[in-house]
Task: structure prediction
Amino acid sequence: MRDPLILPLFAVVCGILLGRALGFSRLDAAWPWVAFLVLAALAARRSRWLRCISVTLALLFTGVVAETWHRPGPPPEIDAGLHETVLLAGCVVEPSAFSSEREQFTVELDQGARARVSLALDDDHSALEDERSAIDDDHPALEDERFALEHERFALEHERLAQHFDYGQRVEVEARVRPPRNFRNPGSFDYAGYLAQQKIFWTATMTRGSQAKVLAGRCGSPAMAAIFALRQAALDRIEKLYACDEYTTGMMEAVLIGETSKLEKIWTVNFRRTGTFHALVISGAHVVVLAAALMFLLRVCAVPEIPALTVTAGAAWLYALVSGFSPPVARAAAGFTMYLIARFFFRRGRVMNLLAAVAIAYLLWDPAKLLDASFQLSFLSVAAIGALAAPLLERTFAPLSRGLHGIASVDADPHLEPRVAQFRVEVRLAAETVHHWTRLPLRWMLEALAWMLRAALFAFEMAVISTVIQIGLALPMAEYFHRISFTGLTANLIIVPLLEAAVPIGFFAIFSGWRWAAAVAGWLLKIAARTADWHARIEPSWRVADPPLGLALGFTVALIAFALLVRHRRGRWLSAAVVLALFVLLLWQPWPAKVTPGTLELTAIDVGQGDSLLVVFPEGRRMVIDGGGVLQFGRRQRKPNLDTGEDVVSPYLWSRQIRRIDVVVATHAHEDHSGGVAALMENFRPRELWVGANPAPALIERAGQLHIRALAMHSSTSFDFSGARIEVLSPPADYASKTPGNNDSLAFRIAYGARSFLLTGDMERPMEQRLLDDQRLGHPDVLHADVLKVGHHGSKTSTTEPFLEAISPAVAIISAGYGNSFGHPHHDIVARLVERHAAILRTDLDGLVTIRTDGRGLTLDRMSWHEASPGIAFDWAMTAGR
Result:
């Protein structure tokens, strides 16, 4: 077998998956492992097949044992309420990282139990910016002078609040503590699990104006203290080299050191869209580039190969530690170490064997990484090159490229493959023809033609590798990021070399302190960013929903078959055709969305402290009402890294294989409702955008850019829509307000058969009273609804007793964030609903909730009933009698 470690890797992977699926205990996993090892030893000389089967099963149970051994226990707990302030004391294990808004560091409270501590730094500064924007221009000089003094005061306050903590310091902080919480929707990212892998089980927010107390003594490892000191020195040097350039500072810290605290999501959007984000973040390619540069310098200095490889491997591990020991860098350092061992024993390193060895070691150390997106993408990208691209190129154009070396030597031709020798002869004939035309020296012509052909073949090889990687990673990219880039084929050819060149030059600038080197690295970074911007403008907005399980398995099997048959002429092209056909199917996605025909569905998506509703109509049309968002309170803050529409609502829709929606609604301009709507318009291209009063101008402008018709809806509008009846209740046509507010909300009632839903946005008491007055004027049933989406997240400013009496709902849905600081839903509102015997569904407690009706009965479902299988969309429901 060419790569003998592939089969053991497959067995270990199957064992880890088996252990997760069946929940073996340590004893249940250990005795079969020992039994198969003994059986393999006894059968060593008797039966080859029995020995192979026993070893394979022993490897399988090695994976099971590793999974059971590393299986996490119950998370630790702190006896404190969500809004209770407590004193935390522990060891700083991740030093302070600063952004424009906050300081953040990690404290280990007990062995394996950490808290990520945050301190807000810029609230007063943001308030000052708002005040400055509202100042009259009557006395501009005086106001500018006062503003400058205020800036200086707030800068001193910022400096007073900010405390830099180093690794190994013992500190005590006063903070509010809460465990991380996921958005409880199918398809959501497991943020709590991601932090738990780093042993972080709480987030702690220091109280306003408090200072952390540094305790006596040191803790932690002296070696790690030295590593973090080296990391901080590198970050300080980057900030000094790129002073007053926030963009380049943040990007270079992320590219070189892996520090992302200053990185804004908006800077990386186009890298993500073009499939080149992998080149921007710390990755194994960084290790390869830096190792190549160091090896070159050592070999130039006449250092022998094995000592040079040893020094380079040590430097790779040091870089992995300094850059935060991210999984891709650690795996690359491990791979380089494996290569060193192979060279020491005079063995030829094979890519797939090295990859399998590193993967086995890594998975036995941490089996949970098997389901980690970073692990899968980094290993699959190397596997695609080693198992698909390299053999394919070796059978096609790679020998021709090598054959161009020493093109003038005729004596080498008989020792080459016939097609390579023939290619060399044809190149010489072409060079002689040009020589006779131009009378230029024949040797010049040969070298020039060979150089041009090598460049062309290199570009072709890079295009093949890029294409193979795009296809090989298509399945995880569709599953995790719902994106397959088309422009990435060319964008990678330009951006990857630019950024990989910026890495050694950037480190040279850090070590030397030379600003010209820093300027060159920054220049390369900005060219890469402009290249990504240009490709993003022509990149089609093609998002991919979750593929069906059958297609995912078929595509995986087809890729494995192609890897096995790539060296056979007939099988190669047949298997490649199957892979391409399934790849096209993955992009095309002709399967229907997971909806129930003939029913009206209302789903409240868990977006934290905000609103987002999915409505599926009886005839199949789909509407999304609001997209959630992060409240800004009118202050000039940087755009939050979490886009609720992109990161929360869209993944849920894709998990149900929804690729298009017909209408998106922005009830009003507040960020917790409309903040994610732009991403929804971008991802799902609805035909229409419905808005209430005072819509956000930026939202209307974006709708125009995407050729989406924006409609301002007003009360007294009633129409049929996809098998149901919609009645717009608010805002009135004559309504006007100077500033955006909750009463701008677009509210409407949807009726289907004998059942109806009332959706009120954030409508408050004045508009509720106006609707009650309209009801008294001759519309007695206009407010009755079986299902009420409670206004303003259950605030006491909405859902008055007369209004609730007129609606008389059977079910009330409240969308609010878990443990939110607003006190939503208010206990008076909950009491009113209980008093009227309404079933209360809350996204803060129940997660995503769904109500369906066939026009007669109501069925309910909620995420809290399905916590054991969070990845499954709701295909069942329980009937609520009413």
